[in-house]
Amino acid sequence: MSSSSIGPVAVFGGTFDPVHNAHLAIAARALAALGARRVLWLPTGAPGYRRPPLASAEHRLAMLRLAVADEARYGIDPRELAPGHSGYSYDTLAALRAELGPGVPLVMLVGGDQYARLAGWHRWKELFGLARLAVFARPGEGAGPQEVPEGGVIHLALDPMPVSASSIRARIARGESLAGMVPAPVLEYIQRHRLYY
Question: Tell me, what's the pLDDT at 2?
Fold first, then answer.
């Protein structure tokens, strides 16, 4: 059996500030719809081209470990948290491609909002030489650039989930419930460490 016949490695980057149930729904959909052998979660650092996360890398990594602990096909790769890492998707995918070899297909999971801004990404056209993109978009969201190579993007539907990291942080600040928004161990961690209050 060739390596490509047993499914791709799905790469899921984000600040995960905090990780929440919509993130887990995307990862589960990648396992099912893409036949992914593995979802590799890549928490991002704080590069200069975007707003830094509120929680420290240590806290975000700890919450992520709690959230994915029950799924053996989930792994966490903390390389983007290392000091001096560029934080660019191209650099991370190039390193992964070098480590995994040419026979392992890579699929990068992105939201429709990110895909709509793809043309502004560092070396974005070269991403497709390293991986395909799986885009999770709501209807009408996520029209990307015109120059995407044929077959380079997989569009996947996802049931709408009215949850985002920013809405969670705002609810915490207002003292509102997070029921159904984050996994129970993550909620307990947030409360214990008084994150986002």
Answer: 42
